[in-house]
Each structure stands twice: as structure tokens, then as C-alpha cells.
Amino acid sequence: MSVGVGGARVGVLVVAYNAASTLASVLDRLPATFRASVDHVLVCDDASQDATHLVALGYQTTTDLPLTVIRHQKNLGYGGNQKEGYRWAIEHGLDVVVLLHGDGQYQPEVIETLVEPLVAGEHDAVFGSRMMIKGGARSGGMPMYKWVGNKILTRIENAAAGMQLTEWHSGYRAYRVDALREIDFESNADGFDFDTEIILQLHEAGKSIHEVPIPTYYGDEICRVNGLKYAKDVITHVVKYRLAKMGFGGGLRSDEAAYELKYDSMTSHGQLLQWMGRRAPGKVLDLGCSDGSLAAEMGRFGHSVTGVDIAKFDGVGTRVNHFVEADLNVGLPDAVGDGFDIVVAADVLEHLVRPDEMLKSVAPRLLPTGVLFVSVPNFGHWYPRTRVAVGKFDYDRRGILDSGHVRFFTKRSLERLANRAGFNVRRCVPIGLPTEIIGRTSGPASLQRMASVVDRVGIALWPGMFAFQYLFELQPKAHPVPISVSTN
Q: Which end of the chain is more exposed for a tag (fewer CB within 10 A), N or C?
């Protein structure tokens, strides 16, 4: 294999702490073909208390490897050491960087196996897995308690994150540097749980992660991982990630801009699509259409959809019949037209500074028999109430406290807003938590069903406290269609 295929610059980050007895051997064992084409090798000595730094400097004077040696003045931790190395890889314009441990736990001889898929552009990250070959980890000397712990944690992490990795805990990894550049690895922990956080970040960013089998070796190296603390930390990360996907907590930062479409009949999107399916095909205006995924589902019922949003997301032009790029905070542009049978404002009003002005501008666009469908998050839900009560109010990455929300609503406040804007409420339906997201993971379906049942019972008993959202059907007061208010 030629590592430099396509002109790719491949580097190796060797993280080393008290590795004086193994470091030179690890570097010697890099394959000759790899040594001939590698762009650079960076040894990061994390303030070792032995002669690791001196061994690295001595090796530098005699090797044919393009080698740089860095010694930290204070210990940065396993994750902190990686941050330093990935910053270096980005600053030096590398295309691929491989994480290699200086203690010899991972075999340098198979490094090309990790690099090849990245150089070929097939994946964004490649992880060496000791669990892919049945019995391989145990025959390589992995202690039983570590094997069992690895299996249990990996199962939990896969279920929470919706992934199917055979191992989350291998330290033998390779990344495309452009993928690292796009995630916020700097915000990760400095400890061993850094590796879990970076998996979640790559997964959330839609990056392709590939696994390759690697041999297992356990020698005389000292284990520096506090197993119980490590288990607690990684489980905390994946649970926070799952909760953030459901709208609770800040979770991971993400560049994701388009809203995720939810198909379940108990979600606002699912209920809205049921309403759309019961109406005759007509002319629809979708305000805040995002990437057009919801509009595409409306189109399946025969509706002709005009989408409006502040930015044109990839693929939206193929999902709507007509697209208008506009900032709804400054009103509806003339380009959207009028004579609509239905106007949809799904999760939009909470993003507007003057939602009342938007509602007033919608009425003239509707036909005499036209309706407006609106969904808004319920600020009266137990989650924001609790956050406020305990003095920990803050914005989340999505959900009721989405950082993009500038207005908050309850059922009554939206009804008052609609009335002032010249609308009557024909229907109002409380919507529960998006438990469908649990079902999109590899976790047990029973968990989703249980969460859904509990949520529905709560809504039935106390909708103001347990409704995650409200979905309204509104009609301008000037329209002659009889008004009937329903809560189901």
C-alpha cells in the first residue's frame, strides 16, 4: 500500500507517559513501507517522570523517521495530550493522523490497516477493535474483568448513541484531519473519557466511522485508568447525549441546522401530517421549511408546497414546489404569493421576535376556507418549570429551551396571541415527548414504549404540565366557517 496515495499527508501522534522502556521499540516496529511515506511523527511526552523525553530525543538523532519531540511542562492528561497533537496536525496541514500509544499496547505493525480507508477517502475515522474477532481479546491477554467491562460499556454506549461499534474503548485510532477540524474536540475532557466524547461528536456530525480488527496485547504496561470513574464518566456522556437529542440539556455542540423530522403519530410532525392527509390536495405555504423534509411528506398527499426559510438548505429545492429565501422576522415577502389553502408554521413562532406580526400577515394569504397550522413548545412543561424553580435556567441545544428560541409559549399565551392577531382556535392538541428518538437507537423497543406510555398518562392527567408541545389549527375570524374548540 502507498500511504501517500493522492498526495495525502499522513502523520502519527504518539502519546507517551512514562514510556521510556517501550517508546523506541514502538517506533522501530513501524512497517518499512509506512516509514518511507509517512509525513511526520509527533511524540508528545506528557510530563513523564522517567526518561521518556531523553529516549525520544536520542531516537530522533538516529532515525530516518521525520520525528518531532514535544515535552509538556505539566501533565495534560490522556485527552489533553491528544488535543495538543490534533491541534498540531491541523496547524501543519496533515490529511490523516493516527493515534499510537507509546507503551506498546497497540501493535505498530498494523498501522497501515487503519490508514488505508482514510487515504482512499472511504471514511472519516477508523478504529482498531480488539473485539471483532471472537476470542481474540482474551487470547491476547485481556483480563476477564476488563473484557466483561468493555462488553457491558460498549453495549450501553451503542444503545444510548444509536451506534453498532464492536468496541468503544480502543485507543488505536486514525482520523481524517478535516473531520477533526469540524468538531469541537477542544471542549472534551482531558481524561480517558475524551475518546468517548470524540466518538459522539463524529457520530453527531454525520461522519463515517469504520472498524478494523487488531490484535490484542497486554504486557507489563501499567494501567492508569480508574475503572469505576471511567465507567461513570463515559455513561454520563452517552446519557447526556441521548437526553440532548430528545431536547433535554445542552449536550454536544453541533453544526446541525436542519430540524429532524419525526414520523411517529404522537409527535407534532406526525400529528400535523395526519391533519394534512385528511384535507383535499391544495396550495400550502410552509413557513420555516428548513430542508424541506416535512414539505416532502405533505407533497405525498398531493399538496403543492411553497417553502420559506432564511437559508436554502441542501436538497430543499427537490422537496418543495417553490422556495423563497426570506427572513420571517421582517415579514412575508410578496414573492410567496397568496391564495393558500393551508399555511404551516411548525416550530417557527418561538424563533420570531414579533410572532404576532407574522400571524397578522398570514391571514390575507389564506383563502376564505383556509387554515393555519401552528406548533409551539410548551414552556409550562415540567422540564423548564423545574429548571427555573431550582435556579438553573439556561438554553439547550434543542427542545423547549432551544438556544434559537426568543419567545416562549404556553397554551393560554398562544391562544391570546392568536386572538389578538385575528384568529380563532379550531383545534388544540397536546403533544408528548419525542420518544420516537429512543426507538431510532439500537436500544430495546420496550424502553420507547414504556416512556411513551408514561408520557401519555401524564398528558391525560395534566396536559399543562406534561405536554411537550401544542399543535393548533387556527382560522381567521373573518372566515365564515363555524368554530369548534377541541383538546384532543
A: C
